Amino acid sequence: MAEQVFIDTDVLIDFGQDQTEAVETMAHLEENYELNVSVIVAMELYAGIRSKKDMRTVEGFLSDFSISFLTTAISEQAFSLMKEFRPSHGVEINDMFIAATAISTDTAFISKNQKHYRFLPDLNLLEYPWKGV
């Protein structure tokens, strides 16, 4: 079984818009990892739906990913991160749930918004864009 990686919403949106850095990064990830998203990321993608066609597109796109749902452990981790880093870094709720999912499962994570996550202890944050492509 390949190593797993969680992918943030921003990377997926850019990939869907055929942005070169995201396309190249996703190609590398697909070759080297099992692709995962947090249920929060999946919900953020659904939040952008404006039509039945959009719904079919998102559902087809997400069928290529394993979706991880929130657990008590993930919620506790997110709550702890929020309490610790909201005052100093202004972290957002969704970002802390997404990061906590990766931390709690000891899984790599990639995001275009590196500054939202780089200070979090125990988060295996991969570089974006992927330089080895």
Write up this protein.
This protein is 53% helix and 13% strand. The chain has 6 helices and 5 strands. It has helices spanning 9-16, 20-32, 39-47, 52-62, 72-89, 93-104; strands at 4-7, 34-38, 66-68, 108-110, 125-126. Helix 5 packs across helix 6. The longest helix is centred in the middle third of the chain and has 18 residues, at 72-89.
Concise summary:
The protein has one domain: 5'-nuclease (Rossmann fold, 3-Layer(aba) Sandwich), CATH 3.40.50. It contains six helices and five strands; from the N terminus they run βααβααβααββ. It has helices at residues 9-16, 20-32, 39-47, 52-62, 72-89, 93-104; strands at residues 4-7, 34-38, 66-68, 108-110, 125-126.
CATH architecture level-2 label: 3-Layer(aba) Sandwich
Mean pLDDT: 95
Relevant CATH superfamily: 5'-nuclease
Q: In the CATH hierarchy, what is the class?
A: Alpha Beta
- Tell me the fraction of residues in β-strands, as a range: 5-15%
Percent helix range: 40-55%
What is the end-to-end distance? 22 Å
Q: Helix and strand succession?
A: EHHEHHEHHEE
Oligomer: single chain
Strand order of the main beta sheet, please? 3-2-1-4-5
Question: What's the number of domains?
Answer: 1
Tally of strands: 5
What's the structural blueprint in terms of helices and strands?
Layout (H helix, E strand, L loop, with lengths): L3 E4 L1 H8 L3 H13 L1 E5 H9 L4 H11 L3 E3 L3 H18 L3 H12 L3 E3 L14 E2 L7
Parallel strand pairs: 1-2, 1-4, 2-3, 4-5
Helix pairs in contact: 1-2, 5-6
Please describe the structure with a list of short key phrases separated by commas or semicolons:
alpha/beta; 133 residues; 5-stranded parallel beta sheet; Rossmann fold; 13% strand
